[in-house]
Write a structure and sequence with these properties.
The chain is mainly alpha-helical. It folds into three domains: 228 residues, no CATH class; 240 residues, no CATH class; 152 residues, no CATH class. The protein contains 29 helices and eight strands. Strands 5-6-8-7 form a four-stranded mixed beta sheet, sandwiched between helices. Helix 1 crosses helix 2, helix 1 crosses helix 7 and helix 8 packs across helix 9. The two termini are 32 Å apart.
Length: 732
């Protein structure tokens, strides 16, 4: 019977989205009520709802990490939270009439439409698309493959172990994985897989970001008039990005190059809001946690107790932010350093004490997590190197245009850095587009005196300045891409978006007061239109790129992690079928091994849900573990997937017993598959189809038990290996 994986993913993602209310929205509401930050209890119900998810993102992740090793304590806490929420709902119901509860303003219904629209975009972009026996994941699976494995590991135990380096004792995971902890709770609560839990989490990440825009306009910018309209404009501006569409058009016209993601034209990128949410929601949630910490500290406290509670909430927010996104938190730390100097100069001693106290609480709460980063460094593309290095922000596209148009190629490192420094304004114009213009207009308004330099204005400009300072002159070197340069701009992007919402609303509501010149207005409209078109193109291409590549409509070779032989869809369907069958027949802690050096690695990591003895090249030691312990695995396990004469069935069992592997999985892209004399064809498979063969190994008793449990779950291939090879013209 043909399984409809698209329907399974959609149903699972919707279920995960609903379950996230239990682990995000409801706890956030209770936290707000108990702490009474932002004067939560006196706020309207709509404001309370908007505050709930951001507060949960700020407080819960670090608490889940600290209490996760005691599951009974953790779930007792959640049980108490759910009971408390029921009690609060009962109290609210008694105080409010039913007719009053039903009278939601029009703007609230528009907000619901925004949320539903985002949920549709997120789920439609992320789930697998199936066409009969062809299955296609989204381009975002490149990142979700790794994080789905982290979520599966967290669903087994907290703190999670490195799923690509299964060992005894377990190797602690080294990554900012706090968002995966929240997703893992959804996996435990419902019948959803790690991927679907993350898809539901992505939906809530978008909802939480929209809530952050609303509360930032109210509590940070201090909007008092037409707040609802400005919030809707701000949420709508999430669909706008920079001028990334223009370089992509150029690349297509000159080289016929199409990238899976529009942002890939430049390294490092400043990612659009929609792209950040779809690819890296944990970084956006790091922004939420840091912003909540700052906003909580800015609220005036009537008593010493309230000030202490605010410092505690802010400290937990900063600790959560570290585990959600080290990169965003580092940018906020740079901002906090300069803000403390500025506050001390202004003699704002209460604010200085609040920030220092919250930072101390955050550091203390985050210390157990930070200690997991202490370990041997890993060299190579997988990780290692220094977290920070001084470097001028690169602009590869600009350097190419200058080299080809003006024939200027700097011969020295100094010349190259000087050229990049001169190209920074153009670099930021392409990356920020309309929002860069908003920053310039805002600065001119301050210089003209129409906008006063208040305390919140100074704070906002320091956040923007910290992003530009880090993004322009620092880079991360732990991996080949400059991740710090990608994510450090999220604080600046948030501030520029808030200012843009103010500008557009003031322009519409009071054109006689806010009247930009015709040139500025026209330029702003063009930039905004290009940004919206770019985001639309980006979402569509993320969804259909693997399909177009598999059908031969795109030039191959741009993305080596996608199969280039026109069988991506069929092979993905076959792999997911086997992995889904294994998930229902073997224990969750079973070690399932695949080829760690497979060029098209995504389906294995995306669908396995189990740990592997060596799941990535170098055992994924950059995510935790000592590389020296991986040398033997690389030699013995990886050789089983090549064509060695020694890879007989007995040798397979020896390797499996040595590393506690229970299931060995091979697909048709592995070299050993094509060797008809190898163990792949001499051994009876546990599960098999035209593209995949899975074998129980190691313990013969375990093998018998697995076969009996699985024999009715997945039938062997209906066509023989020789028939399929003959049909494809590859029979030797």
């Amino acid at each position: 019977m043909l399984r409809n994986f698209t329907a399974i993913d959609i149903i699972g993602s919707v279920e995960a989205t609903l379950l996230f209310a239990l682990v995000l929205f409801i706890p956030g509401y209770v936290v707000g009520w108990l702490s009474n930050v932002f004067e939560f209890r006196e706020r309207r119900i709509t404001t309370q709802f908007l505050l709930s998810s951001p507060l949960a993102v700020a407080v819960l992740p670090v608490l889940i990490y600290l209490l996760g090793r005691y599951p009974k304590v953790l779930w007792t806490l959640f049980g108490a939270i759910w009971l408390g929420f029921i009690f609060l709902c009962h109290q609210i119901w008694k105080r409010s009439s039913l007719s009053h509860m039903q009278r939601l303003p029009t703007v609230a219904w528009l907000g619901v439409v925004f949320v539903l629209a985002w949920a549709f975009i997120a789920i439609a972009t992320l789930v697998d698309l199936q066409f009969n026996h062809r299955l296609y994941f989204s381009s975002t699976a490149y990142d979700y493959a790794t994080r789905a494995a982290f979520t599966a590991a967290a669903a087994r135990t907290i703190p999670p172990a490195n799923p690509f380096f299964a060992a005894s004792p377990p190797v602690p995971l080294r990554y900012h994985y706090f968002w995966m902890l929240l997703c893992s709770l959804v996996t435990r609560l419902g019948n959803v897989g790690p991927r679907q839990a993350m898809y539901g989490g992505t939906v809530w990440a978008g909802v939480t970001l929209m809530s952050l825009i609303a509360i930032s306009l109210k509590f940070f910018v201090g909007v008092r008039e037409r707040l609802e309209q400005k919030v809707l404009i701000g949420c709508g501006l999430l669909l706008a990005t920079g001028l990334d569409m223009l370089p992509n058009v150029y690349l297509y016209l000159h080289w016929h190059q199409v990238n899976p993601d529009m942002e890939w034209w430049n390294e490092p990128q400043i990612t659009s809001w929609v792209d950040s949410l779809l690819w890296v929601p944990h970084h956006v949630m790091g922004l939420v946690a840091c912003t909540i910490g700052v906003l909580v500290l800015r609220q005036k406290a009537a008593t010493t107790f309230q000030r202490a509670v605010a410092m505690l909430v802010a400290g937990l927010a900063f600790a959560s932010a570290v585990g959600l996104s080290v990169l965003v938190t580092f940018t906020f730390a740079v901002f906090a350093f300069f803000w403390l100097l500025f506050a001390a100069h202004r003699r704002w001693w209460d604010d200085v004490a609040g920030v220092l106290g919250a930072s101390a609480i955050g550091l203390l709460a985050a210390l157990p997590y930070l200690s997991t980063f202490v370990g041997p460094a890993v060299d190579g593309t997988g990780g290692g190197g220094r977290f920070l290095a001084i470097s001028i922000r690169d602009f590869t596209f600009g350097r190419y245009l200058i080299a080809s148009g003006l024939h200027i190629v700097p011969e020295t490192m100094v010349g190259r850095e000087l050229l990049l420094l001169l190209l920074l304004p153009l670099n930021y114009l392409f990356e920020l587009g309309f929002f860069l213009l908003i920053g310039v207009v805002r600065l001119n308004s301050i210089r003209a005196g129409s906008i006063k330099m208040s305390r919140q204005e100074e704070t906002a400009w320091m956040m923007v300045g910290a992003s530009f300072l880090v993004g322009s002159f620092l880079r991360s070197t732990t991996i080949s891409s400059n991740d710090l340069g990608w994510r450090c701009f999220l604080p600046a992007q948030l501030i520029l978006l808030l200012w843009a919402a103010l500008f557009i609303d003031d322009w519409w509501s009071a054109p006689q007061v806010v009247r930009p010149s015709a040139v500025v207005a026209g330029f702003a409209g063009v930039l905004l239109a290009i940004g919206v078109i770019g985001t639309g193109y980006q979402v569509v291409m993320l969804r259909i790129y693997p399909i177009l590549l598999d059908d031969g409509h795109l030039t191959s070779g741009v993305v080596p992690w996608l199969d280039q032989d026109g069988r991506l869809g069929e092979r993905t369907y076959a792999l997911r079928s086997v992995y889904d069958s294994l998930r229902t027949t073997v224990p969750v802690d079973t070690i399932v091994q695949y080829n760690p050096y497979a060029p098209a690695f995504i389906p294995h990591q995306l669908y396995s849900g189990h740990s592997a003895a060596i799941g990535l090249p170098l055992c994924g030691a950059s995510f935790g573990g000592d590389l020296s312990r991986c040398a033997g695995r690389m030699q013995s396990v990886a050789s089983l997937f090549r064509k060695p004469s020694s890879a007989e069935s007995a040798g397979l069992d020896i390797v499996c017993r040595l590393y506690s592997i229970k299931v060995m999985l091979v697909d048709d892209s592995d070299p050993v598959w094509k060797d008809r004399d190898s163990w792949v064809w001499k051994r009876v498979p546990l599960l098999a189809n035209d593209y995949v063969r899975a074998f129980a190994c190691g313990d013969s008793g375990q093998e018998t038990r697995l076969v009996s449990a699985s024999e009715e779950k997945l039938k062997p291939a209906t066509s023989s290996w020789n028939e399929r090879q003959a049909n494809s013209g590859e029979l030797e």
